[in-house]
Amino acid sequence: MLKKVLKTKIVQPFLFLLLGFLFVVLNNVGIFNGLRSGISYIFEPFSSTAMQWQKSVSSWASLLFDASSYIEENRNLKKEILEMKANESKIVDLEEYEALKKHESVLWDSGEYVLAKVLGNSLKGDIYLNVGIEDGVKEGDIVSLGKVFLGVVSTVDRGGSTVRLPTNRESSFEVAILSSTVEEETLLDGYIKASGVISGDLDGINIENIGINSEVADGDIVVLRDERIGEILVVGRVVGLSQNPAATSKSGFVSPIFDYTNLISVFVKIN
Amino acid sequence: MLKVVLGTIGIFLVVFLEHFFLGISAFSIFLLLSVITWNRVSVPLFAYFGILTSLALDVTLHQPLGFHFLILGTVLLLLSFVGMFTHLEGRASRYAALLVVFLISYFVNIVSISLFEDGIFPIFNTSILLGIFFNSVVSVIVCFVSDILFSSLREEKGYEKIRLK
Questions:
Q1: B48 lies in which domain range?
Q2: Can you tell me the distance from the alpha carbon of A196 to that of A176, in angstroms, rounded to the nearest whole number?
Q3: Which class would CATH give A172-256?
Q4: CA-nearest residue of chain A to B72?
Q5: Is-same-fold flag (A69-164+260-269; A172-256)?
Q6: Which B positions 82-121 lie with beta carbon below 8 A of chain A?
């Protein structure tokens, strides 16, 4: 009788749905951590290899289809790297930079980092890494590259993890905006032009709640100043600042330092 | 025993291919195989394949366990529902119905991922919608090819059975 019922077409989908709800509820309670670890041990090597092969195939395909833009992109990347190094040295060399920090801590903190390879990107603004619980990574860890903020670890398994980028719609951080020519400033408070809030969007990173009377301009540097992150990291530069005089605050977009689809290796701060 | 071994190899292959094609064009081999194999293989084998593949994909894609069960259940429910209104064994109506099923399945997949992981409804821009349409069309083409392969295999077996001495 049971076999006959199970073979009925309409019963099977409901069984899967019931099983799904049960597993999701039990997963949230944390009962399946051991099972996840075991499945991860068996299947993560296959998924990592597949993602790496996919990246190679995708980059070769794009190279074949668009060779000239690749050359242009390479040139722009070199320029960006030089610019980034120059900007970093502006922020690092100045003693007054410590005035931006809420805590009395050393600029170059001696946190422990894990080098991770980026396996792929998702449509909604995440990247997949090849490090997980066995490497000491946990939810909420900061992911960066140099002094540039890349994201926060959102889900983690035994051998892999997902990082939520600033372009993810769920991302929202407090930021400070520095002058693009910060080394010319002589006053402590002069470095911070304004504060604001960044939030993710499918097309990029929005920045809002900038004081209407602030002198923020396109090209100014956006640094993270959020107590959930706990350190000052660069996000990008202000672009497309709104010019509406009737508005009560300014808004615009943030152009990230790096193109998140071109990341190869990143650092995850585990301590 | 042979079916179990082949099914196990198939699970590893599906996990590999799912990650490979998801990265290239968000194409889901899991959805495609679920539609092709449902009612074509025995219930225990389908359940074995479906359950293990779902669990493996949930962990490797860092989603909560049970997520792919929900997706699988939704897809099969859609197929059953569409089957009530259209004849799924006929030619044109079958593929039109499958196109609708795949379009809705990809849409539900993207919405579910965003709701489960981030708790927000996703935004669909032109490229995502075009991607869903392209993936659905490719899935229907693969179903068409698989139908031809299956029917040619059946004809060969049938020939042996009905041969007159």
A1: 2-162
A2: 6
A3: mainly beta
A4: A16
A5: yes
A6: 83, 110, 113-114, 116-120
Query: A29-84, pLDDT tens digit by residue?
Result: 888 888 888 899 899 888 989 988 888 888 777 777 777 777 777 767 766 675 56
Q: Is 0.85 exceeded by the ipTM?
A: no
The count of structural domains within chain B is 1
What confidence tens digit (pLDDT) does each residue in A174-202 have?
999 988 765 544 443 556 888 899 999 87
Distance CA B130, CA B44 (A): 36
Chain B residues touching residue A12 (CB < 8 angstroms): 38, 43, 46, 76
CA distances to A143, B35, B71, B97 from B101, in Å? 39, 9, 12, 6
Phi, psi of B60, rounded to the nearest 5 degrees: -70, -25
Domain positions in chain A are 2-65, 69-164+260-269, 172-256
B5 lies within 8 A of chain A by CB? no
Q: Identify the architecture of domain A69-164+260-269 in CATH.
A: Beta Barrel (2.40)
Q: Is B42 on the interface with A (CB under 8 A)?
A: no
Distance of alpha carbon B61 from alpha carbon A161, whole angstroms:
9
Backbone angles phi, psi at A176, to 5 degrees: -120, 145
The residue behind tokens 């597993």 is A23
Q: Hey, are the CB atoms on B80 and A9 less than 8 Å from each other? A: yes
Predicted structure pTM score: 0.71
